[in-house]
Amino acid sequence: MKGKLLILAIFLITFGTLPACIEVNPLHKISQTKSSPIYYKNRAVVLLYHNFKNKECGTAITPDRFEQHLDMLEAEGFKVVSLQEITLFLNGKGTLPPNAVSITMDDGHRSNYTVGYKSLKKRHWPGTVFVLIKNTEEAGTKNDQWLNWEQLRIMSRNNIAIMSHSFNGHQFIKGRYPSGDSWFTTRLPGESQADYQERIYHDLLTARLIMQKKLDLPVESFAPPFGMYNQDVIRAAQKAGYKYIWTTARQAVTSASAPTELPRVSVGRKNTTAQQLKETIIALGQR
User: Fold this and answer.
1) pTM, whole model, 2 decimals?
2) What residue ranges define each of the domains in the chain, with the CATH number in brackets?
């Protein structure tokens, strides 16, 4: 070894440099990686998905398209963060990386586990599922399209936050559909304002208490069904113990965002390409 070092020293003294073809230490090559552009800072774009099916329709996209979306996020330098990281940022207790995005899924379809969770897990990425608790309580008894408690526990132990989408508020008042009169934002026939407020409060509190008991984890976030809410819903959610309300407003989360009206953008729609997703994220992040 000393002889080799002596020869190398003599070579350097004589020629002043190593020839290009000599590899000094093959175990420590310098890897060159493509640097990603910074599209935006100090904000996050929260993405909203619903269901994953083999045939796209409405708010259901194929597993392949979801993979294409995730591949694009990785290739283009977007940084996937959790909703908790975003709320810490909002409270002045943390920072966000450039190009921050977060991935959420609404309703609690079984495919959120079989497709969404497994795709995120293999990338070691966080995510959030907003669950309709009545459906989860009935999972395996009436149908198999909803997540059950064991699946939710598995996800919660593996970087997926489980939050509330209400107990049974994902419905329209009979006879009113599709006019847009949601169960959460509309008084029932003959219902007083006080009774209406108590009804939605009871639903939100029931969902939160069941979730905390079943999962043994705090539940601080709520996403209104259909993205429809009013000031009564906000007050009821706060009274029921929720700190953050996630809407469907097409904006980025910034330090100025109100905790009770945090925006998300629905991107899990039929025929939404990875390129369209990229353009949407950048546009919202730079707005």
Assistant:
1) 0.84
2) 40-286 (3.20.20.370)
